[in-house]
Write a structure and sequence with these properties.
By secondary structure, this protein is mainly α. The chain folds into 2 domains: 118 residues, Alpha-Beta Complex (50s Ribosomal Protein L17, Chain: A), CATH 3.90.1030.10; 40 residues. The protein contains 8 helices and 3 strands; from the N terminus they run αβαααββαααα. It has a 3-stranded antiparallel beta sheet with strand order 1-3-2. Helix 1 packs across helix 4 and helix 3 packs across helix 4. It is elongated. The N and C termini lie far apart (134 Å). The mean pLDDT is 83.
């Protein structure tokens, strides 16, 4: 009996299953996205995500541990150099499963499993969504009380300016007119003097 056995053996022996997951994990790390069945993708996610977490700490020990799982030098190098730098701030959830329908021969559920931080199209789309702002309904439609208050404010005539301000404005205007007259007088005198010099 298999009471409490949550591991999906995928119809394979233990050694066959381990070898298959190691190959799939190496391919995922190298190519950043692979196409497979949903059952295999879910098993691969449990297999590869702890290895990616291990790659955040770039030590000889962690490299040897990861190599004992993958047995592929190129995949280990890619994981520690490029992948670990991109996912350094992410606290887990390094892979994404996108279902693509059923397989033609046996109707198995197919999907693509990919590394989240390497899908440039989705990253760009997420950036555009973040820029968009959401407006609430209250800003576009005023409630009944607010509409009444706004209408009454529009109907009220503008308040009269205080008498002191009016008097100050008049005084400033008188001063400006006097200044303008002085300037005009001085220019007339200069013109007259110039005419007199010309006649001499």
């Amino acid at each position: 009996m298999r009471h409490g056995d949550k591991q999906n053996n995928l119809g394979r022996t233990s050694s066959h299953r381990e070898a298959m997951l190691a190959n799939m994990a190496s391919s995922l790390i190298k190519h950043k996205r692979i196409s497979t069945t949903v059952a295999k993708a879910k098993a691969l996610r449990k297999y590869v995500e702890p290895l990616i977490t291990k790659a955040k700490e770039d030590t000889t020990h962690s490299r040897r541990v990861v190599f004992s799982y993958l047995s592929d030098k190129e995949a280990v190098t890619e994981l520690f150099r490029n992948v670990a730098q991109k996912i350094g701030d992410r606290p887990g959830g390094y892979t994404r499963i996108l279902k693509t329908g059923t397989r033609l021969g046996d109707s198995a559920e197919m999907c693509m499993i990919e590394l989240v931080d390497f899908n440039e199209a989705m990253i760009a789309a997420k950036g555009e969504k973040a820029k968009a702002t959401r407006r609430s309904r209250r800003s576009t439609k005023k409630s009944g009380e607010e509409a009444v208050v706004a209408a009454s404010a529009e109907k009220k005539p503008a308040a009269k300016a205080p008498k002191k301000k009016v008097e100050e404005a008049k005084a400033e205007q008188v001063v400006e007119e006097a200044h303008d007259q002085e300037v005009e007088g001085s220019t007339e005198n200069e013109v007259a003097e110039e005419n007199a010099e010309e006649t001499k």
